[in-house]
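Q: what sequence does this backbone want?
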């Protein structure tokens, strides 16, 4: 029997809010532990480089060994180890330990801040305001570009250890932060990953279903664009069409913004990977559900994108 009453609905909403708060608390705590680990790791790297003649070669060797030991943690690439070291050197000039606001924001936010800000106090300000206002990464970048630090005041009275609003964009990003899932030794609990894992477990069958000529290039393929890292779900090369095939996996119904993001990836692949004799890259969006009208409208003017 289904209970229908305003009293029950109010109580249900209260319970749901408590669950969401617990989820966010756990995610923020996990993010802090990851930032503490990065700080200690960078400190070890800096000290070892200082006391030895290994130079930057230590980063490449350490990256190889850590990825062999912890294959599910993607934060140990040479590029990310370099970023971790730069992040540590930036803040350790003023702080002995990770500043509290810095530890509360995701790693992607931290990388953005140190790439654009040269003053430690200004960086702390943006970290604090990110938590306070619940900014996602794009919103943070927009505030930095518009010099929010200079227009809204520069002082922070105290470092309040608090949660971002559950409804905020930052909360959503924190809950879905892939670095946190990797840190736990998990792949990513999003359904897209489950789909991807299933496809990889039967890669041969999947390629045969796509048709002849598909050659597997990579999974979670990394592209660096303007110092930012972007990840392609699956990348193939078609031997007969002579072009790269970019595949994005989505668990829900099709959304028009998926097409724009895929077109961005296609342009990047054409710019970075395509050889002069290759044809323009083709994109596929694989959705569990889709609205044919929305797909048609979204892809009508994107000549690079194929739809299935």
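A:
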């Amino acid at each position: 029997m289904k209970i229908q009453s305003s009293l029950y609905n109010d109580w249900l909403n209260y319970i749901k809010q408590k669950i969401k708060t617990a989820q966010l608390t756990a995610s923020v705590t996990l993010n802090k532990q990851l930032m503490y680990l990065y700080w200690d790791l960078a400190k070890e790297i800096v000290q070892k480089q200082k006391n030895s003649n290994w130079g930057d070669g230590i980063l490449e060797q350490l990256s190889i060994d850590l990825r062999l030991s912890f294959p599910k943690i993607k934060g140990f690439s040479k590029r990310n180890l370099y970023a971790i070291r730069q992040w540590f050197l930036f803040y350790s000039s003023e702080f002995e330990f990770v500043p509290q606001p810095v530890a509360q924001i995701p790693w992607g936010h931290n990388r953005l801040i140190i790439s654009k800000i040269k003053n430690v106090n200004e960086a702390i300000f943006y970290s604090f305001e990110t938590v306070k206002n619940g900014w996602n990464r794009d919103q943070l970048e927009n505030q930095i570009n518009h010099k929010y630090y200079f227009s809204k005041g520069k002082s922070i009275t105290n470092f309040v250890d608090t949660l971002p609003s559950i409804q905020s964009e930052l909360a959503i990003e924190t809950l879905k932060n892939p670095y946190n899932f990797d840190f736990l030794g998990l792949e990513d609990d999003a359904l897209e990953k489950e789909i991807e894992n299933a496809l990889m477990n039967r890669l041969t069958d999947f390629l045969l279903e796509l048709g002849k000529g598909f050659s597997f290039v990579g999974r979670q393929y990394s592209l660096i664009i303007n110092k930012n890292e972007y990840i392609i779900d699956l990348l193939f090369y078609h031997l007969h069409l002579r072009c790269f095939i970019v595949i994005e996996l989505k668990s829900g119904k099709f959304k028009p913004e998926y097409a724009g993001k895929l077109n961005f990836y296609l342009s990047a692949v054409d710019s970075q990977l395509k050889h002069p004799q290759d044809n323009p890259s083709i994109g596929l969006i694989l959705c569990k559900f889709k609205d044919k009208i929305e797909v048609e409208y979204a892809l009508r003017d994107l000549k690079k994108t194929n739809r299935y």
